[in-house]
Write a structure and sequence with these properties.
The chain contains 8 helices and 2 strands. It has 188 residues and is mainly alpha-helical. It has one domain. It has a two-stranded antiparallel ribbon with strand order 1-2. Helix 2 runs parallel beside helix 4 and helix 5 runs antiparallel to helix 6.
């Protein structure tokens, strides 16, 4: 006679990233949710591997009437973090330029291009920074990269304000207006 009782499968071991993500998401229902989202938004612009939307989405679903407030606070905190990331990238750029003795004023006149290396990298990268601030690209990559290639601070600021505002308000607005449908979809 064989034993036909099913054997329970061993629980799946979660990666450190998934465990961290779940902890951050759990903060969204705590009394410290807003403070946690602000902190995560600031650190997201510089080094943190978890986007603030892991907190923002459940917060808006729980209190849809506060979607504008959450979006605005998240945008401002994310911009502050972006400046930290930008200056980290700028420090890396300055260190690399001096260590590798790179001349950013070197003129490039090939393939119809007539500009310095610094102009090519810094003057044109801001459009990519704008696009990547809206897309699900980690913002720290955008911020540090902008500092590393020498995007002028005013152009980085413009790209970051536009991009992060669109991203935070879009995510919050979608969760606010499609919340019941989104809640069903998220719990599948």
């Amino acid at each position: 006679m064989s034993d036909s009782t099913p054997v329970a499968a061993a629980p799946e071991k979660l990666s450190w990233y998934r465990r961290l993500y779940l902890r951050v998401e759990a903060l969204s229902s705590s009394p410290h949710a807003v403070a946690a989202m602000l902190l995560v938004s600031v650190v997201d612009g510089s080094v943190f591997p978890i986007p603030p939307f892991a907190l923002l989405v459940p917060m808006v679903l729980a209190q849809p009437q506060k979607w504008v407030r959450y979006a605005l606070l998240g945008t401002v905190a994310s911009l502050f973090g972006g400046f930290i990331g930008y200056y980290l990238g700028d420090l890396l750029r300055q260190g690399a330029i001096s260590f590798l003795e790179i001349d950013m004023n070197m003129r490039i006149t090939r393939f119809g291009i007539d500009a310095t290396l610094g102009e090519l990298l810094g003057q044109n990268f801001w459009a990519l920074a704008l696009l990547c601030s809206v897309l699900p690209t980690p913002f720290k990559v955008v911020a540090i990269g902008s500092g590393m290639v020498g995007v002028p601070l005013d152009r980085f600021f413009l790209a970051a304000v536009l991009g992060r505002s669109v991203r935070f308000f879009l995510v919050s607005g979608v969760m606010r207006y499609f919340g019941p449908t989104a809640r069903k979809w998220l719990r599948v």
